[in-house]
Amino acid sequence: MSQYNIEEDIEAAAGGEFERTPVPQSNWKSWKSFLGMYAGEHAAGTEFVIGPLFLTAGVSAFDLIIGLLIGNLLAVLSWRFLTSEIAVKYRLTLYYHLEKIVGKKLVIGYNLANGILFCFLAGAMITVSATAVGIPFDMEMPKLTDTMPNGPTWIVIVIIIGALISLIAAKGFTTVSKAANWMSPIIITAFLACGFVALKQLGVTGFSDFWNIWGEGSEPFPGQIKYTIWHIVFWSWFANGAMHIGMSDLSVFRFAKNASSGWTTAAGMYVGHYMAWIAAALLYAVYIRTPEAQALLTAGQAPSVAPGPLAYNAIGVFGIIAVILAGWTTANPTIYRAGLAFQAIMPKLSTFWVTIIAGTIATIAGLFPAFAMKLLDFVAFYGFVLAPVGAIIVFEHFFGDKFGIQKFYAEKAGIPFNTSMIAAWGLSFVLFYFISVKFDIFLSFVTLPAWLLCGFLFLIFSKILQKKAR
Known about the structure:
Elements: H1 3-16, H2 32-41, H3 45-56, H4 61-90, H5 94-102, H6 104-133, H7 152-170, H8 173-201, H9 207-212, H10 229-238, H11 250-253, H12 265-287, H13 291-298, H14 307-315, H15 317-345, H16 351-366, H17 370-373, H18 375-403, H19 409-413, H20 419-438, H21 447-469
Helix pairs in contact: 1-2, 1-8, 2-8, 2-12, 3-6, 3-12, 4-10, 4-12, 5-6, 6-7, 6-14, 6-15, 6-16, 6-18, 7-15, 7-16, 8-12, 8-15, 12-14, 14-15, 15-16, 18-20, 18-21, 20-21
């Protein structure tokens, strides 16, 4: 069976089969089924923005290169020893697993939050594609500090891209996944080409030259904060926090033959979140040495991080195509998944129309460059909000018996709303978000404490609630 057919099989089953039953052994897949999937999914539109944004935060060479090595390793370990372990134990989707613990009504709330955040992420990717489409029209590119649409050309291009992406996504995941599967090798090749061309433009002839591109780092650009190695480690660890410690990828790894398939996420982390981020950062390193960028910095303004012009400067028309495809392949499945989340709330609407609704929200978000220009902050917030939900699943699985609580309590007690979950999540969210804002602490630094507290509180509140119910 080809790689595409295997991936299509997994996604088809995830969307239409075994939604409320464990995946049977006849449908289990080997680790090869997940390798290409993760490599392709994590070398996409977001990478064209994230790499340059690291440079705007003034990171040093050591902090970027070593920080990404450590942070991505921690992400892989989280997938391997938490997500895939639990996935192959129960073989349930995240939504059904969560429903059995916290009740249907709380899962509806989770779906709403998940769907809205997916739409905003897709909107950022529509913005990415628009920066490439706008090059032939000599469109003014959004600046790093822009929040509002910067002109009618921008608005028209974003609306057209958003409409096309939404219509394709609404046709179903078979169309989306097939196109993305064909485009992923092109995008990965483009990242490699951009990296090598940028190295040549920077005059790199050896490792010392490469290391000196960032040197000891610099002051952050206007409106940005200074990133240290710890910012890089924790941000890269929790960039996909909703997927691993947040347990979203239970829906994927429930098809794995064994938990060791979790190691395949390294393909995504070190092709996309390492190679691609550094390649994109190199593109920006070339740009900020230009007279245009230096003039902006001298005037106290932040140079644009628009991916389209950066890639075009390196590899020409191929760069434009790559950025369009990268944004498209990220936005399309993201809008599709947002539509599925909304459909759980509005089951009477067809998949087509809930996807169109999600695409409309994403397109509106794409009009505002802030979602892309502040992608580091948005991704940190996304992980902070959703990751603690996964702590409830993790703590119940590993510590539920030792704590003496009934597993899958909402299902067994027949309750639609488990107050232990909302109390644990709410208290951990409010406490650590307040700490982050009040003391100006980087949000990714408090994601792990919030996750741990949420899981621990859930055990305590469950113990109290279940004791009263006896």
